[in-house]
Design a protein that fits this description.
The protein has 13 helices and 8 strands. The chain is mostly helical and about 375 residues long.
């Protein structure tokens, strides 16, 4: 299934509000920029792998994650580089689809670059940090079989997570204030009253950025994709839902506008974020446009899968007929075939590629 139009690419977008972290350790800038692997001459740095392991901006080391887990994460990064390189070699980055997806996600690249810059500048975690030592003392009181090194790593992780969360809240508050982010509650109220409001009506502004009724309707349509019971209310007319979604859209607009005010476009951080975005788009396009096209599922395969799992096809004590689950089985088999095709394709690309890994640097991740 083609996923071009309307596709959002995962690249720190407004994950500005939910950072996931793994484990902690001290991180110096020189270490972050060391090359842990190269794929056909394209470098993968320590910061890339740390971010893959869940560390925002790679600001601390994942010292208590086993090397094998780090190698698994590195292998995924290598696969991503290979797929993106293949996409470029096929000219996918010069297609209208690529440009459309990039345009849809460019705001996310700006926000990601802004957040990364703020974290790098303001989140510093050292062994002797008072908050780290306090957390170490707390953890030692309940110490089990953990080593002192693992306890220190957990303490750093906890302190880093707290500081990053606070930084995000402060950054959003500053962005709202600096861009004058506001919702037009009167316009939202008119929609709730059933008045005729055009799609180009402005429901919120942040600097020069605008949230249109059309943007909110599109987001609400995505939320309602799973469908609802017959007679369910139209969410695009619900003033509470509209206000919630409009405010969510306004968060992205205000952060994007603030990033522009801060000179993020044109910065090295933004160039990195653009490259990450382009790579993610190419990976998806290779999977969708190159591999998925040849994947088909026959009725015979669906029937065989149904028979294989027939005993579990029961609901309320009655056997579920094939017709009722045929679509679900088709989707499952199709996704499984695509995954296997992608894995096999990556193996082929690896066989032709020049890949080097620096184990000494991997240990510093």
């Amino acid at each position: 299934m083609k996923r071009g139009k309307g596709r959002k690419v995962a690249i720190l977008l407004v994950a500005v509000l939910a950072v996931g972290a793994s484990a902690a350790g001290c991180a110096r800038e020189d270490v972050k920029q060391e090359v842990v692997a190269a794929v056909n001459g394209e470098d993968i740095r320590v910061v890339d792998l740390r971010e893959r392991m869940g560390v925002p901006a790679g600001v601390y080391a994942v010292t208590d994650i086993p090397v094998e887990k780090k190698k698994e994460g590195l292998d995924r990064l290598v696969a991503g580089r290979l797929l993106a390189q293949e996409g470029r070699s096929r000219g996918l980055d010069n297609t209208p689809e690529f440009k459309e997806i990039f345009h849809q996600n460019e705001q996310g690249a700006l926000i990601g670059a802004l957040l990364r810059r703020e974290i790098e500048a303001k989140v510093k975690i050292d062994d002797g940090d008072k908050e780290v030592q306090a957390e170490v003392a707390r953890l030692k009181e309940a110490k089990g079989a953990e080593s002192d090194a693992d306890i220190l790593a957990r303490a750093k992780r906890k302190v880093a997570e707290t500081r990053i969360r606070k930084l995000q809240e402060e950054l959003l508050a500053t962005a709202r204030k600096e861009t004058g982010a506001t919702l037009d509650n009167a316009m939202i109220g008119r929609i709730g009253k059933g008045e005729s409001v055009p799609d180009n009506a402005v429901l919120g502004t942040a600097g020069d950025e605008k949230v249109l009724y059309a943007d909110v309707k599109k987001a609400l349509k995505e939320l309602a994709k799973g469908g609802g019971p017959p007679g369910a209310p139209d969410l695009s007319k619900d003033p509470v839902m509209i206000a919630n979604v409009a405010d969510r859209e306004l968060i992205g607009k205000s952060l994007s506008a603030y990033a522009k005010k801060q000179g993020v476009p044109g910065s090295d951080g933004y160039k990195t974020a653009r490259k990450d975005l382009e790579r993610n788009i190419l990976i998806g396009m290779v999977a969708d446009n190159v591999l998925a096209k040849g994947v088909t599922v026959t009725d015979k395969e669906i029937e065989a899968a149904y028979k294989e799992h027939e005993k579990s096809m029961v609901q309320n004590g009655k056997k579920v007929p094939l017709a009722a689950v045929k679509g679900q089985i088709r989707d499952f088999l199709q996704n499984d075939k695509r995954r296997k095709a992608l894995d096999a394709y990556i193996v082929e690309l690896k066989a032709k590629a020049k890949i080097t890994v620096n184990d000494a640097v991997l240990a510093k991740v």
